[in-house]
Design a protein that fits this description.
GO molecular function, one term: precorrin-6A synthase (deacetylating) activity
CATH architecture of the largest domain: 3-Layer(aba) Sandwich
Number of strands: 10
Keywords: Cobalamin biosynthesis, Methyltransferase, S-adenosyl-L-methionine, Transferase
Strand content: 15-25%
Order of helices and strands: EHEHEHEHEHEHEEEHEH
Protein name: Precorrin 6A synthase
GO biological process, one term: methylation
CATH superfamily of the largest domain: Tetrapyrrole methylase, N-terminal domain
Domain Tetrapyrrole methylase: 6-218
Helix content: 25-40%
Strand order of the largest sheet: 3-2-4-1-5
Number of helices: 8
Shape: globular
Distance between the termini: 64 Å
CATH topology of the largest domain: Cobalt-precorrin-4 Transmethylase, domain 1
Radius of gyration: 20 Å
Structural class: alpha/beta
Largest sheet: 5 strands, parallel
Length: 251
C-alpha cells in the first residue's frame, strides 16, 4: 500500500522542524508540492531548501501539483468544497502515477497539518480513489510562533482561547482572547479601540514583522505595513492575537 506523510514544517524557519519531521523527510522518496504560481514560489522554494538541508541521501524527487482556481463570491462553503474536490482529483491522479505501491510520499504542510490546513481533508477524498494510508507529523504553528515572537502567554489565567478567522470575527465579534488567522480584511478594525493586539507576518522568517499595542493605537499602522509587505513580496501570511480591554482600561 502507498504511504503518505503529512509533515508539519513550521512557519518560515527551517529550524522549526522537529526530530520526528527530519526522520520522516529522510524516509521519503517523493515530495508532492502544490504549485501556487510565481507570487508564492518562495513558499515552494523553502520546502526544497528544507529538504536539501536535512535529507542525508540523494534520490528523492519533487512532483508539482497544479492548483485549481477557487471561485470568488457566492456561497463560501460551496466554493471551498468545489475547490477541494478539484484538488483531490488532481492529487489522486498524481499519487497513482508518481508514487509506487511500496514508496513513501509526503506533503510538507505549512505550520501544523491540523490547524487551518486543508491537506488532511483532501487526502480523505483522495483515499476514496487511490489505495493509500497517511500519517501526520505535527509541526510548530503560527500561533506558537506569534506568541514566542512577542514573548507573551497565549491564554490568561484560567481562561479559554478561541482560534478563528477574520470572517468569523466580523460576524460574531470578540468576547475573550482570540487568535485570528486567514484574515485579508483587517477585521480587527471592527473591535473596540481599547482591544489589545499582537500582530505578526512572515513569522519565523528573515522578513518577520511584529507590531503590538491597542487597535486604536496601531490598527492603521498594521493596515499600512500589511499593504506594503504584500506589494513587496506578492503574498502575505499573517496572524494576530486579540484580548478585550480589561475593565480598568476602559474606565
Amino acid at each position: 500500500m502507498r504511504v503518505l506523510r503529512v509533515i508539519g514544517i513550521g512557519v518560515g524557519d527551517p529550524a522549526h522542524l522537529t526530530v520526528q519531521a527530519v526522520t520522516a523527510l529522510n524516509e521519503t522518496q517523493v515530495f508532492f508540492v502544490v504549485d501556487k504560481g510565481e507570487t508564492k514560489r518562495e513558499l515552494a522554494d523553502l520546502r526544497r531548501r528544507i529538504c536539501a538541508r536535512y535529507i542525508e541521501r540523494p534520490g528523492y524527487r519533487f512532483v508539482e501539483l497544479a492548483e485549481p482556481a477557487r471561485a470568488d463570491g457566492g456561497d463560501y462553503r460551496r466554493a471551498v468544497a468545489d475547490w477541494h474536490a478539484a484538488r483531490a482529483a488532481i492529487w489522486a491522479e498524481a499519487i497513482a502515477t508518481e508514487l509506487g505501491p511500496h514508496d513513501v510520499g509526503a506533503f510538507l504542510a505549512w505550520g501544523d497539518p491540523a490547524l487551518y490546513d486543508s491537506t488532511l481533508r483532501i487526502l480523505d477524498a483522495v483515499a476514496t480513489r487511490v489505495e493509500l494510508r497517511y500519517e501526520v507529523i505535527p509541526g510548530i504553528t503560527a500561533v506558537q510562533a506569534l506568541t514566542a515572537a512577542h514573548g507573551i502567554p497565549l491564554n490568561e489565567v484560567g481562561e479559554p482561547v478561541l482560534i478563528t478567522t477574520g470572517r468569523q470575527l466580523r460576524t460574531h465579534g470578540l468576547t475573550g482572547t482570540a487568535v485570528v488567522m486567514l484574515d485579508g480584511d483587517c477585521s480587527f478594525t471592527h473591535c473596540p479601540p481599547q482591544t489589545r493586539i499582537w500582530w505578526g507576518a512572515y513569522l519565523g522568517s528573515a522578513d518577520q514583522l511584529l507590531i503590538a499595542g491597542t487597535v486604536g493605537e496601531v490598527g492603521e499602522q498594521i493596515r499600512a505595513v500589511r499593504a506594503q509587505a504584500r506589494a513587496r513580496h506578492g503574498w502575505l501570511m499573517d496572524t494576530y492575537l486579540l484580548r478585550p480591554a480589561a475593565a480598568h482600561d476602559v474606565a
